[in-house]
Amino acid sequence: MIGDLANKIKESKIVGSDLEAVLLSVCALGDDKKEEDLSLILKLPELNISQIKEYQGTEQVKKFIFRPQNLSEYVGQEKAKKVIKTNLLKIKKLRPVHFLIDGLKGHGKSTLAKIIANSLDSECYEIIASEITLDKLTEIINWINTCEKLPIIFIDEIHGLDGKIIEILYPIMEDYKIEGKRIKPFVLIGATTEKNVLVQNYSPFVDRFQVQITLERYMVDDIVKILKQYKEKIYPEFKVDDNDLKTIAENCKFTPRIAISMLEDLLIIEKVEEVLDMHNIIIDGLDSVDIKILQILDKSEKPVGEEALAMMLGLSRKDYKFLHEAYLIEMGYMARGRTGRFITEKGKKVLEKLDKQS
Ligand SMILES: Nc1ncnc2c1ncn2[C@@H]1O[C@H](COP(=O)(O)OP(=O)(O)OP(=O)(O)O)[C@@H](O)[C@H]1O
Ligand SMILES: [Mg+2]
Q1: CA-wise closest residue to 351 among 283, 250, 300
Q2: Mean of the per-residue pLDDT values for the chain?
Q3: How far is CA 88 from CA 69, 74, 112, 122, 355, in A?
Q4: Ligand 1: which of 110, 235, 263 to mutate, judged by most atoms within 8 Å of the beta carbon?
Q5: What is the pTM of this model?
Q6: Can you count the helices (H) and strands (E) in the chain?
C-alpha cells in the first residue's frame, strides 16, 4: 500500500508546497484510505482563467512559428502523404477512419494531425492523453455529439492514456455507441513516440486505427526544403547562404524542430559554426552527450544497460532513448545486443577522429 501510494504521488509530479498539502491530506485519511480518496487528493487545482487579466495593449507578435497548413507545404514523408490523401477521400465519400501517427520527437506528428483536420470540413478537439479522465471523456463525447461539423479528436502522446479510458474507447471507435447510446461519427487521430508501448499493452486498441502512419527520418534535402520554406514564410527579409542551410541539415539529427531552432539562431548570429557550437555539436552531427555515450561504451568491457547509461549521463530514460540512442543506433555508431549496448566500428572511428582533432 505504501509503495502504491508513493508511486501514485511520484507519477502525479506534484512538488513543493502542493506536495506538502497532499501528504498532510493523505495522513488525515487514516488507515482506511480508498483509491477514490487518493485520486481526489492528487487532483491538482485547475488554473482559474477568469482571474487572468487580458493584455489590453497593441503590441503583437509578428508571427511566432510557421506550421505547414496543407499536405503540399508538408515536406517529404511521401508515403505517409499518399496514404493520407486516399483516406481523406475515403472519409469524404465513405465513412470516418481513425489515424495513428508515430514518429520521433519533433518530426511533424502534431503538424500532420492538424493538416488532416484542416483538410476536412471539421472541428478539432486537441488534448494530451494524460489529461483524459473519466469526466473529461464525458465532456469530449458530449462535444462530439453537439459538434456541427465532422468532429476530430486529436490525442497527443496517446501511449499515455489510462487503461480504463482505452477500454471504454474500443467499442466507441468501432460502433460509435456507448452502452447503447449513439455517438456522432468522428475521426480519432492519435500521435505517439512510443507505439511499441501501445502495441505491447493494448494491441486491440492499436488495431482499431485503420490508418497507421510511421514517419520516416528526413533526408538532408528535405530538411533544407523545410528550412527554406520556414524562412520565406516568416523572415523573408533575411538572407541566408544555401551552404549554411545544408550544414544545419547535416547537424540537426535530421529533426525539423532542431533544424528550425538552429535556423533562427543563424539569422541572429550569422556564423553557422557558432550555431553548431551553441547546440553543442562536436563532430559529424553528434552532440556532446552522444560523444559521452560513445566514450562510456568504448571504455566498458561489457555491454551496458539502458538504465545504467541514462543514469551515468544524468538523463531520464526517455531523453536518453529518444534524443540520443535512437539516432546513434540508426546511424550505426552503437548497437543493441541481448545484454546491453555496445559501440560499433563506426563509433570507434568517430572517437579516433575526434582525438586527432584535439
Ligand atoms: N514535414 C514537414 N514539413 C515542414 N515542416 C515540418 C515538417 N515536419 C515538422 N515540421 C516543423 O517542425 C516543427 C516540429 O513539428 P511537430 O511539432 O509537428 O513535431 P512532433 O512530431 O509533433 O513533435 P513532438 O513529438 O515533440 O510532439 C514544427 O514547426 C513543424 O512545422
Ligand atoms: Mg507534437
Answers
A1: 283
A2: 89
A3: 15, 16, 13, 12, 53
A4: 110
A5: 0.81
A6: 18, 11
